[in-house]
Amino acid sequence: MRLPRILFAGVVGASLSAGGVIFQALLRNPLADPFVLGISGGSALGAILAIVIGASAFYLGLPFLAFIGALATVFLVFVVAGGPRGVLLDNSLLLAGVVVNSFFSAAILFALSVVDSLELHSISFWLMGDLSRASLPEIGGAALCLVACFAVLYAQARKLNLIVQGEETALQLGVNVRATKYLLLAATSLVIAVAVSFAGIIGFIGIMVPHMMRLVYGSDHRLLLPAAALFGASFLVAADTAARTVLAPSELPVGVITALCGAPYFIFLMRRKERR
Per residue, what are the HEC states of the chain? Predict the structure, then answer.
């Protein structure tokens, strides 16, 4: 009975951690996480729409609309950040993600103010992370997407190492920086969108795990990516176990556990950055 949920938590944790590694490297921001492009806001808005119109009663209705919302958000952020010539800049992507996510947060608050109490409980629980929907179709779909996207990301690990050292250096060594960044952003956004559409918003894993693994294994993405994916999977399994047992027989959203662990670590990273 527990095995499907354990597998599901592992797949989601690996997806969020691998996404955090890529976003922190591409945006050159140690505080970036998989939701920096506004994917969380788009997915949450799609899920709320599914609950309000009753689509969540159908098979895969809620994950499907959440996934559509995430993809629409990624496209919107790319358009806003691309500028007149479609050139993606790191600061532009970061700011566009913040702006779009703020807009979707306002839309979510508006939706929460007009729904009834039963729907409000379902929405609130999903927004804080919910792994109780684990079933073979969801696990299979998320795992297939993770394997495919991780293969793409790992194949670009050497190029990513060069891009982190400097785009001019990477260009001189024959790396097509623009195409590589587009490919990495697309693959990462897809795997994160699938994870969020199935499991809801689970924060701070994409911040904590990459930094922990970087302290242990260094900055070589050929080693950092698989290490972060494996540790992220283990961490979310442990967090979900705690969420199910701390207040048993009641169950906490797993996002509450990750936030309790991640918020102090986030403050630690900020203070460490200021000291540097």
Answer: CCHHHHHHHHHHHHHHHHHHHHHHHHHCCCCCCCCCCCHHHHHHHHHHHHHHHCHHHCCCHHHHHHHHHHHHHHHHHHHHHHCCCCCCCHHHHHHHHHHHHHHHHHHHHHHHHHCCHHHHHHHHHHHCCCCCCCCHHHHHHHHHHHHHHHHHHHHCHHHHHHHHHCHHHHHHCCCCHHHHHHHHHHHHHHHHHHHHHHHCCCCCHHHHHHHHHHHHHCCCHHHHHHHHHHHHHHHHHHHHHHHHHCCCCCCCCHHHHHHHHHHHHHHHHHHHHHHC
Peptide bond into 249 cis (omega under 30): yes
The pLDDT of residue 84 is 44
Q: What are phi and psi of 58, to 5 degrees?
A: -90, 160
Select the CATH number that applies to the domain covering 3-275 from these four: 1.10.3470.10, 1.10.3720.10, 3.40.228.10, 1.10.10.10.
1.10.3470.10
Burial of 139 (0-12, 13-18, 19+ CB in 10 A): buried
* Tokens matching residue 77: 């952020």
| Measured distance CA(63)–CA(44) in Å, rounded | 10
**Confidence at residue 236, expressed as pLDDT on a 0 to 100 scale:** 96
Instruction: State the Cα torsion 173-95-43-258 to the nearest 10°.
Output: 90
Q: What pLDDT, in 10s, does the model give residues 130-182?
A: 888 778 888 898 899 999 999 999 999 999 999 888 888 888 888 898 899 88
